[in-house]
Every structure is written in C-alpha cells, then in structure tokens.
Design brief:
The chain is an alpha+beta fold and 178 residues long. The protein has one domain (8-173). The chain is 31% helix and 20% strand. It has 6 helices and 7 strands. It has helices spanning 8-14, 16-20, 32-42, 109-127, 143-148, 155-161; strands spanning 24-27, 50-56, 62-68, 90-92, 135-140, 151-153, 169-173. A 5-stranded mixed beta sheet has the order 1-2-3-5-7, sandwiched between helices. A two-stranded antiparallel sheet has the order 4-6. β1, α3 (32-42) and β2 form a beta-alpha-beta unit.
Length: 178
C-alpha cells in the first residue's frame, strides 16, 4: 500500500490506472467539492469501484454512511447546489464550535465512534457482497444529546423516516428524495 500527499483530483488525474484497479474508495472529508470529485472520477467509463461517503451533522448528533456505485443514484441527489443535505436530521441548536471542521475538531472518540462504525461496517459489507449500492445508513444520537445543544430532529426527517426513539439509534433507508 502506498500513500499520496495530494488532492483526490490530482491523484485521479496522475494515476488513472489505480482507479481502474480499485474496488472501493472511502471519502470522509465532509467537503462537498472533494466528495463530488470522487464521484465524478468513479463515473468515468471503465471504473467499477464503489464509494462509501461518510459525514456528520452539527454537534455529531447524526452520522451518515452512504454506499454508491458508478451508475444509478448519485451523491448529488441528496444535496442541494450549495452542498447542504436535502434530508438533514438535525434542526436548530446552538452554533457548532468555531474549531469544528477546521484543523481540529471538538469531537472525541465517543462522538466519532458511531460515524466510524457506520463507514467501516458499510465498507466491509460492500466488499463482502452483503450490501449493494445504493445504501444509506444513519446513526442518530439520543434525546439528551439533542437537548444539550438545544436542537431537534428535523421535521423533514420525521416525515420521511419517522421520529427516533429517546435512545436514538440506527436508521437504514433509501437514497431517494422525491
């Protein structure tokens, strides 16, 4: 295994054969432009790789893992032209800390554990053929975590996926937004 200190766009341009030989790409940048670059590279002719995208919402109240192939559902289906999710879990709440999303994060192992587990489990299941694209898995925090930051579960999420129980938990749904 080799590492490359570069952007994905540069890597894809300089190493096209590597992408043709790849089975799975995991993108957890939380950056709309970077994720769109991954998707664009995977939809080019001759590419067979799957992609798992992972991201968290404000205050780590919700985590998502999305498995997509090189045809059919697209990452962009679930986001508007500004990169905002069409079906967010979190509504309102205190502003996230200024350092969140910067060079450091305010979240530690406890908050990140659910996001990491979602992404890894979906990636392993995809490689084993137990999960097929598209697949969208979300983890939602418990009611106490929402109350602590004065947030709520978004009405669109409740209408589409249902109200999470007081303990939060895992939600598996379609990547569709009609």
């Amino acid at each position: 295994m080799e590492g490359y200190q570069t952007t994905f766009a540069t890597f894809a341009r300089e190493h096209p054969q590597a992408l043709e030989d790849t089975n799975l790409i995991i993108s957890c940048t939380g950056d709309w432009t970077a994720d769109a670059t991954v998707e664009h590279a995977l939809t080019r002719p001759g590419r067979k790789a799957l992609a798992v995208y992972g991201w968290m919402e404000a205050h780590a109240l919700a985590s998502h893992a999305l498995l997509l192939g090189n045809a059919g559902a697209r990452l962009a289906d679930g986001f508007d032209e500004h990169g905002d999710p069409r079906l967010p879990v979190v509504a309102g709440g205190k502003p996230p800390p200024p350092e969140c999303g910067g060079a450091s994060t305010t979240f530690g192992a406890v908050e990140l554990a659910h996001a990491q587990a979602l992404v890894v489990r979906l990636a392993i299941d995809a490689l084993r053929g137990l999960e097929t694209a598209p697949a969208w898995h979300s983890w939602i925090a418990d009611v106490d975590a929402f109350e602590e930051v004065e947030a709520s579960v978004a009405s669109g999420w409740v209408a589409s996926r249902g109200q999470p129980g007081n303990m939060g938990g895992l939600f598996i749904g379609d990547w569709s937004f009609t």
